[in-house]
Amino acid sequence: MQISRRSGAFIIAAALAFAFGTAHSQLGAQSPAAQPAPAAQSSSGLQLDAMDKSVDACTDFYKFACGNWMEKNPVPADRSSWGRFDELQERNNETLKKILESAAAGTDAGSKKIGDYYASCMDESAINTKGAAPLDPLLKKIAALTSPTALAPLVAELHTIGINPFFSFGTEADFKDASVEMAIADQGGMGLPDRDYYFRDDAKSVELRKQYVEHVGKMAGLLGDAPGQAEAVMKVETALAKAALDVVSRRDPNKIYHKLSVAELQALTPQFQWQQYFSGIGSPPIYALNVTEPDFFKALGQTIASTPIDELKAYLRWHVAHASAAILSAPFVNENFRFYGTQLTGAKELRPRWKRCVQYTDDDLGEALGQAFVKEAFGPQAKADTLKMVHELEAALEKDINSLAWMTETTKKEALTKLHAISEKIGYPEQWRDYSALTITRGDALGNSQRSNAFEFRRSLAKIGKPVDKTEWEMTPPTVNAYYNPLENNINFPAGILQPPFYSAKADAAVNFGGSGAVIGHELTHGFDDQGRQFDARGNLKDWWTPADAKAFEDRAQCFVDYYSSLTAVDDVKLNGKLTLGENAADNGGLRISLMAYLARTPAAPAAAIDGFTPEQRLFLGWGQVWCENMRPELARMLAQTNPHSPGRERVNGVVANMPEFQKAFSCKAGAPMVRQTQCRVW
Fold first, then answer.
1. Alpha-carbon distance 502 to 520, whole Å?
2. Are 238 and 312 within one domain?
3. Same structural domain for residues 587 and 490?
4. Is the residue at 235 inside a domain?
5. What pLDDT score was predicted for residue 526?
6. Are residues 225 and 302 in the same domain?
7. What is the pLDDT of residues 46-58, one digit of tens each?
8. Same-domain status, 320 and 382
């Protein structure tokens, strides 16, 4: 189980944010065993009892689509948010629980690993009896450290098992030759959500830093450390944060691609022995690597050299405890949740253990568990329907590109070449991951987690210098999300999201186009947003735009930046229009493309109303209802500062307010809140 993104797997995905969903990290907070309320009788597949028809759709469409749902679905005590994504993930988790309980109790050799992993995680009594003892071997190695020059082998060992002090390391396609895997070294080593958390001077940020130092101190106390260690940790992390790029800067792929030789990397950080590190992680020969942020690694070396050895040890001990806390004894679990679950995101209670163990099993054995999930929950009809919709959405996007008045024929030709080259992955991998080399031992929860991390890390490192395998997935099949990978130019839809409210074989086509169709359109347009447009049809970082077209795009994109920056996330915090640009443009373009595709499928004659709504209205409601959610203010504040996705209300109202098609569908008058006078549009 990993607190942070798995090392070695699409390491800059957080910077090149092309996922569809909200991507919250709860760190121990999730819903109780709630099930979605039964929908009112519906012929279309809409959840009619979710709507608040007392609200004018042209005044607040989000509340019109979701108002009653929001009233009836307050955030559960062990959640910091609750929405339709969570409802679906909850249903998926119930399926996973049955699979894992059966595997844990059974004798089937094919499911033994997932059963033993889950059973070990669920054995809370055994875990509590061990206390912090499972960390002793690592803590002794840290205690034996005598000089900063000896750090590299120890950091290598920690990175291998999923503990990531100082920086992150893994593999990624070469931005300039996306057919080949290369090593990548990236910023890291910080326990707060983003580098700006270390420097914001508003009262809430200052207080949160105090709470963080208190948390680090309490974790150190659980390890038996003397007081005062937390200040040393904060000193090191602040030095790293100072040299790190902010989340908006990291959205520019040119700012996080610097291909260097090992000798050049060593010159950046002469205080850290890179060859010893590479030997320690067992990497194949590395002749060049992407050092995402050279200034960060220069500062890393300086920080190592200027920090007393005892403070470096305190920093390392903290990261061992931090990365391991969720799978250790109750005092570690509870303290970890107190800060990351309650103080940072507002959750009130720790989620039930079985839900945490389902998540951890999915994290570490996702394709073994996912294979069983697909058999239970994903039929061939969903895959066939999704693929059909993909082709219809691609045809609609092609028509849209050809009709763009602001794009020249030269760039249109390149755009269509890229569109035609997009490949799609639906539901689950063609080739399931082979976990035969991974040892899972019943009764060794932390060891299972560490060995799983090492298995994945080494599997990833083995790809260095080899051709990119575009059949691999970055999400597990039960995941309620989707993504576009610019380096592979493909769109990916796990089985977990191809279910109600996004897709149902029984639902009206308009509702499905508002749900899963908009997901498809969203991901397709990511290939042409402010980030994706910088990669060509082969996935290479290459400028294929004429200067005039690039300026025309940027002018239209700025409209989205300005508009969303004017919206309030919570209290005194506005949305960051630059951070959310790609996702906002994808939402706006994706729904428009989905509407075009739906209308191209249907006959020219007006279709009959269902449930009192026209086809176009049902499509917009299908979109609106996938985003019904409630969120605690603590999480809303954090996401506004770190997440490239806007909140649900803004994802719904922000899209329809920029669409004349919505105005027409609901007969909205000019000047209504859902009809912007100056509407933003790229696609």
1. 11
2. yes
3. yes
4. yes
5. 95
6. yes
7. 999 999 999 999 9
8. no
- Where are the extended beta strands (E) located within 51-195? 81-83, 167-174, 177-187
Average pLDDT over residues 315-334: 98
Residue 105 lies in a domain: no
pLDDT band at 1 (very low <50, low <70, confident <90, very high): very low
Q: Is residue 2 part of a domain?
A: no
Q: Give the list of residues 6+ apart from residue 482 with CB closer than 8 angstroms, or none.
A: 19, 20, 21, 475, 491, 492, 493, 494, 497, 519, 522, 523
Tell me which residue has tokens 């999923």. Answer: 162
The CA distance from 667 to 665, in Å, is 6
Counting the structural domains of the chain, the total is: 2
Marked catalytic residue, from 237, 444, 523, 650: 523
Whether omega before 380 lies within 30 degrees of 0, making that bond cis, reads no
End-to-end CA distance of the chain: give it in Å, rounded.
40
Q: Does one domain contain both 382 and 268?
A: no
Rounded percentage of the chain residues whose pLDDT exceeds 90:
90
Three-state DSSP state, 423: strand
- Contact call for residues 304 and 272 (beta carbons, < 8 A): yes
The single residue of 86, 225, 456, 587 carrying the catalytic annotation is 587
Average pLDDT across the chain, whole number: 93
CATH of the domain at 626: 3.40.390.10
SS3 label, residue 614: coil
Given a cut of 70, whether residue 3 has pLDDT beyond it is no
579 lies in some domain: yes
Q: In terms of domains, do 419 and 513 share one? A: yes
Residues 497-553 pLDDT 10s:
999 999 999 999 999 999 999 999 999 999 998 899 999 999 999 999 999 999 999
Residues 389 and 306 in one domain: no
Q: Report how far Cα 624 is from the mean position of its chain's Cα atoms.
A: 21
Q: Which amino acid is at 554?
A: E
Structure token digits, residue 61: 């469409």
- How many CB atoms neighbour CB 276 within 10 A? 17
Q: Are residues 185 and 280 in the same domain?
A: yes
Contact residues for 583 (Cβ-Cβ < 8 A; gap 6+): 17, 644, 645, 646
Residue type, 383: K
Active-site residue, 587 included: yes
What is the extent of the structural domain holding 256?
Answer: 148-326
Bigger pLDDT: 227 vs 657 = 657
Q: Which residues of 377-399 are buried (b: 16+ CB within 10 A; e: fewer)?
A: bbeeebbebbeebbebbbbbbbe
Between CA 127 and CA 357 the distance in angstroms is: 13
pLDDT digits 0-9 by tens, 628-639: 999 999 999 999
**Does 214 participate in catalysis according to the annotation?**
no
Distance between CA atoms of residues 229 and 238, nearest Å: 14
Q: Whole-model pTM?
A: 0.93
> What is the domain-level CATH number for residue 259?
1.10.1380.10
Find how far residue 283's CA is from the centre of its chain: 27
Once rounded to an integer, what is the mean pLDDT over residues 330-357?
Answer: 97
- Number of other CB atoms surrounding residue 525 within 10 Å: 27
Rounded to 10 deg, the angle between the 203-222 and 330-337 helix axes is 170
Measured CA to CA, the distance from residue 646 to residue 629 in angstroms comes to: 12
The secondary structure of 244-303 as a DSSP string is SPPTTGGGSGGGG--EEEHHHHHHH-TTS-HHHHHHHHT----SEEEES-HHHHHHHHHH
